[in-house]
Each structure stands twice: as structure tokens, then as C-alpha cells.
Design a protein that fits this description.
The chain has 16 helices and twelve strands. With 398 residues, the protein is of the alpha/beta class. Strands 6-5-4-1-2-3-12 form a seven-stranded mixed sheet, with helices on both faces. α1 packs across α6, α5 runs parallel beside α7 and α6 packs across α7.
Length: 398
């Protein structure tokens, strides 16, 4: 955690991945993020993975460093309290529908400089999930050897949308500072997905070629990059992105003469051209397969590291969780008291600011843990009024 956004308060009413991720990133940089949920938890409160006691490890990690207010949003009084909190704070992140009691127009009637960032599925307001949007933009038909589509388990569009939403909020605040104007930013997952495809050249590529890219399995399109298996059975990924890496890879594998023979036969030079290495992979891959299969992984890894060659063996996520370099000795991780009671390394801000002291990660809140504090501070409700709301079941206190 870093206190780069100290003084910024944000109300978050959201669930699942994209919108909570926006709040998480803001909180990790020091913003006060107040998540408002239904009493007892929203639809993602028990989302897997869960502990034996049914505490969601997913929820408590996507909601670290936030405050929690619990309201009965099924009752008019609960909805009115959420509206009042949004107006009193002035910054709002949500994935609630465009229309309804949390529409920007409704909220801005009494708070004209309100900034709302709304995560959506499709621009027309219809629902979508990362896994359906990914299908819509075509990536599962590029992944794997084919012909069957391969869904990706990483919700990339959710995570990109969450990061973009946090950026969009700060951009809108910058505009408000300059002009005094608030406004709503609508951010559909589908637009993040297809926009990213375009930014990576995919739209232009498809329209230029008029055909789909071939399925490549674990090969990297346009580069010399693929998985290979060492003599001791370790499957490792090797990717070359610079001429120096190519030269050092050939030297490490003692393939100078063999590669030169391919170049002479085909009238090409692989020294500086990524595309040529990719185009002639049919001749290059067998050479590298044999050379790598004749060496043990530890021996190759040492040679590759010395040559600045990018490589990594395939590992399980359990392997990664137990890797000291990635987790235990990584300064982005620290200890935090988790609501689940399970002690494990908690991630803080991914970025490192050398000029600032890194703060320890904070735990996620219990549902309603900060209801009384927030209602008192933000809405100036008396302790008697808050007690009445709790007794009436409108407010939950963790």
C-alpha cells in the first residue's frame, strides 16, 4: 500500500471481478474505498474458492483495504442511504445497471459534480461475463492446437476493465478539477475486449488478410517462441525477442552451423528478423527440439540465464505459491489479519515507489464492519438514529 491517493474517498457498489478490482487498486494506492453491500453479503460474497467454513478467499482478496457498509438494498430506506452516501462522497464506482435507483442522472440531481464510473457488459446494458466476451472477440478460436475452442481461465477482460475503470475515475477527477464538471464514464467489458484486440493490431490484421490466424498451439505468433522438453522431462517455454537473444540461444545450444545451413538453403538470414524465424519455424523447430532434448533443464537454464535468454519451465500454481522469489521474499506481499482466519501472504500494491515506504497490505472488511463509522461521518447520523436503523434491519453492523 502507498498513500498516493490520500484524501480521495470512493463509494463502491459492485460484485464479481471488474468493478471490485477498480476499488481494490484505488485502495492499494491509499484511497478510502467504501464498499456497500446487501446485509449478509452480495452475490459474490461466497464465491469460490472458499474455505471449509465457506469464507470466500476470492472475496477477501479482491476487497482488501476497503471499508464495508451493509444495507438492506431491497428496502427504500436502504437504497436512499446508499444514494445519500454516493452524493456525500462525490465519487462512485459500480456495476449496477444504467437505469434504476443508482442511475447517474438520479444521483446527480442533488450532486451535479458527481463522478460515476459504471462497469457494464455490453454498451446497450445487456449482461456479459469475461468468458462470454472472450468468445465474442475470437480469442478461444486462436488458443490451443484446434479445432476446438479453448477458454482461458484468467478473466483478462475483467481485470483490464477494473484497471481501466480506476484510471478513468482519476481522469474524470482531473477534468472536474479543471472545469468543475462531473459526469459518468460507462465502461463495457465488450468495448475493453474489442478495443484491446484493435490495439494489438488484430482488427487490422483480420481485415487486411481476410482470414483467421492459424492455430499455433504453444507457439508465439510472429516470433521464435515455443515450448520444448529437456532430457529430464522438463517442459519449458523459450521466447526470443532481440537479435542478441537469438545469437546467444544458438550459441548456448551449439546450433550455429545447423542454423546457417537452413539460412543458406532458404536464402534468408534469421539474425535480425523475427518474422523470418517464425515463417521458417518448420525447419528451425526440429533443430531446437533435438538440441534441447539432449540437455538437462538445470544445465540449459544456467546457459540461458547467462545469455539473457527469456525462458521459464511450466509450473503449477501451487508451485508458484511456494516459490520464495515470487511470493515469500517478494515485497509486494505481507501479512494481514484475514476475515477467514486463514493466514497466508497477502498482496499489496503491485507497483513499487522507491521514494516511499511501502505499507503492509490491509485485510478485507467483515460485511458491515464500518457501517456505523461511515454513516456517522458521511451522513452525520446520530448514534441513536444508527441504532434505530440497525434494529430495523436497514443497516447491518459487522
Amino acid at each position: 500500500m502507498y498513500k498516493l491517493l490520500s484524501g480521495l474517498s470512493v463509494i463502491e457498489a459492485s460484485s464479481f471481478v471488474a468493478s471490485p478490482t477498480a476499488g481494490l487498486y484505488l485502495a492499494q494506492f491509499g484511497a478510502e474505498v467504501i464498499r456497500v453491500d446487501q446485509i449478509g453479503g452480495g452475490p459474490d460474497f461466497r464465491r469460490w474458492p472458499v474455505t471449509a467454513e465457506n469464507d470466500s478467499l476470492y472475496w477477501e482478496n479482491l476487497n482488501r483495504a476497503k471499508k464495508s457498509v451493509a444495507l438492506d438494498l431491497g428496502r427504500p430506506e436502504g437504497r436512499e442511504l446508499l444514494q445519500a452516501l454516493v452524493r456525500a462522497t462525490g465519487q462512485f464506482v459500480t456495476n449496477f445497471p444504467v437505469d434504476g435507483f443508482l442511475s447517474h442522472e438520479t444521483l446527480a440531481k442533488e450532486c451535479p459534480d458527481l463522478i460515476t464510473v459504471r462497469v457494464m457488459g455490453w454498451p446497450d446494458g445487456s449482461p456479459a461475463l469475461d468468458y462470454t466476451v472472450n468468445n465474442a472477440v475470437g480469442y478461444p478460436m486462436l488458443t490451443g492446437p484446434g479445432p476446438e475452442p479453448v477458454n482461458h481461465v484468467l478473466p483478462a477482460w475483467d481485470l483490464l476493465t477494473g484497471a481501466y475503470a480506476a484510471f478513468a475515475l482519476l481522469a474524470a477527477i482531473q477534468r472536474r478539477t479543471a472545469t468543475g464538471e462531473g459526469g459518468e464514464v460507462r465502461l463495457p467489458l465488450s468495448d475493453v475486449a474489442i478495443g484491446t484486440v484493435a490495439n494489438m493490431g488484430g482488427i487490422a490484421e483480420m481485415l487486411y488478410s481476410g482470414e483467421n490466424r492459424p492455430r499455433l498451439g504453444n507457439a508465439v505468433y510472429g516470433l521464435f517462441g515455443r515450448d520444448f522438453t529437456t532430457r529430464d522431462g522438463v517442459r519449458t517455454m523459450i521466447v526470443v525477442v532481440t537479435p542478441r537473444q537469438w545469437t546467444n540461444l544458438i550459441a548456448a545450444l551449439k546450433l550455429g552451423d545447423a542454423v546457417a545451413a537452413v539460412e543458406a538453403t532458404r536464402g534468408v538470414s534469421f539474425a535480425t528478423d523475427d518474422g523470418l524465424r517464425f515463417q521458417h519455424r518448420d525447419a528451425l523447430y526440429p533443430l531446437f527440439e533435438r538440441a534441447i532434448a539432449a540437455r538437462d533443464h538445470a544445465d540449459l537454464a544456467a546457459a540461458f540465464d547467462a545469455g539473457g535468454i527469456v525462458h521459464s519451465p511450466y509450473r503449477t500454481m501451487l508451485d508458484a505459491a511456494r516459490d520464495p522469489a515470487l511470493v515469500a521474499s517478494n515485497p509486494i506481499f505481507g501479512a494481514a489479519g484475514n476475515p477467514s482466519g486463514f493466514a497466508y501472504p497477502a498482496a499489496g500494491a503491485f507497483a513499487t515507489v522507491p521514494q516511499m515506504e511501502r505499507q503492509a497490505p490491509l485485510p478485507a472488511p467483515r460485511n458491515g464492519q464500518h457501517s456505523e463509522e461511515v454513516l456517522s461521518e458521511r451522513l452525520a447520523l446520530s448514534s441513536r438514529e444508527i441504532a434505530r436503523l440497525i434494529d430495523a434491519g436497514v443497516v447491518g453492523a459487522g
